[in-house]
Amino acid sequence: MGMDDFAPFLKINGCFIVMNVSPQVKTISIFKYPINYQRTRDLLQIPGVAEADIRASLLKGELQHKIRAKDIIVICSDIDLLQFNDAQKAFLQGAGITEGLEVPGGGGTGITADEHATLRQLIHFIDEGPGDGFASGAYKIVTGQPFPISIVWYTSLAMTHKLVEKLIAYNANQTPAVITWHMYAIDGFTIIHTVTDTITYINNAFEASRTRTIS
């Protein structure tokens, strides 16, 4: 089993290799590059294709379509796919992907330094919005008055990419019962961290306790 004859060059680090197993015994194309039947291609070798392109295509693009159509199987993947939810992970595992879906074990935090910094940002700037490390020009939208149910920070006035989102659920006394914060990835729609606070009160007015869940 060798790399497809059309492969333009070899890449030293990282892989996302697929094999053409089309039931129609045909040549297929991914990212506009052909893969002959029963041949393989490392998609990271294709000029201009990055890990982010592969992740996006697995979520809702041609890679997802070709996997579901059983045109390809994945025989090597070591890219970061941590942002996929449980259902998406199950789909990827069924396609042959085993690496990059879970944080590594070993007694540490299981996240990178950049991810840890992002999570700290979400916690420390949880009410004030994006702070140090974010580009200026962020724009906030509040939904629901006099009791806001949603507060969203966007990267700009265009409101195309979310940074941080705060969702509030109230109890019968109109005091916050559950508050959920979402921190978004650079693509503006993938949630990378979630913090949920569940609050209890004394005399239905004074906060007594708060349980915080971080995922």
Total of helices: 4
SSE order: EEEEHHEHHEEEEEE
Number of domains: 2
Largest sheet: 6 strands, antiparallel
The fraction of residues in strands falls at 25-35%
- Largest sheet strand order: 6-7-8-9-10-11
User: Segments where pLDDT lies below 50 for 5+ residues?
Assistant: 5-12, 104-111
Question: Would you tell me the overall average pLDDT?
Answer: 77
- The radius of gyration is 22 Å
Question: Which CATH first-tier class of the largest domain would you pick?
Answer: Mainly Beta
CATH fold-level label of the largest domain: Lipocalin
| Spatial gap, N to C terminus | 41 Å
Find the count of extended strands (DSSP E, 2+ residues): 11
Tell me the CATH architecture of the largest domain. Answer: Beta Barrel
Overall geometry comes to elongated
- Structure class: alpha+beta
The percent range for helix content is: 10-25%
From the structure above, extract its key features.
215 residues, Lipocalin, 6-stranded antiparallel β-sheet, 3-stranded antiparallel β-sheet
Summarize the structure.
The chain is of the alpha+beta class. The protein has 4 helices and 11 strands. It is 18% helix and 32% strand.
